[in-house]
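re: ur question from earlier - yeah i can do the single chain one, its not a big deal. heres the input i used so u can compare w yours
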Amino acid sequence: MALRNIRKQGDPLLRQKTVPVSRFNSQLHQLLDDMIETMFKAEGIGLAAPQIGISKRIIVIRDEDKVMEIINPEIIESEGEIIDVEGCLSFPGLYGEVPRPARVEVKGLDRTGRDIKISGQGLISRVLQHEIDHLHGILFIDKVLRFLAPEEIKKLGEKA
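and the output i got, formated as tokens:
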């Protein structure tokens, strides 16, 4: 496994649409392992392949101790709406209020190419949508209603 550099605000790759994965081999497994290690080291809860310079439709998400790997993810159902605070590993220190569906169902493939479905609500729903947006070149700053002021961010840190 290897740590990868996380691309930051202004990197043109973050705005590109990604291509589907069609080969499920040892290189894909290594990339997934690297993405997971990078996400944990950065203390993130989600990471999309474009954030490490790979233009492929791959995301990894952590839900407490469980890690989800989703290849070629696609939202197939959503409902409700909730506005909550989001940040992004590619935009360190920047947070904003973003509206998103409250619940989503996502289909995709696992690392071996098998079909998977994941339903999420609350934080997991938000992270799934945020990371899938990355695969379309959409960033949370494109959807933000209001950025948080430094004192609001400080209060968030005190609650954690």
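The mean pLDDT is 95. not sure if urs matches, ping me
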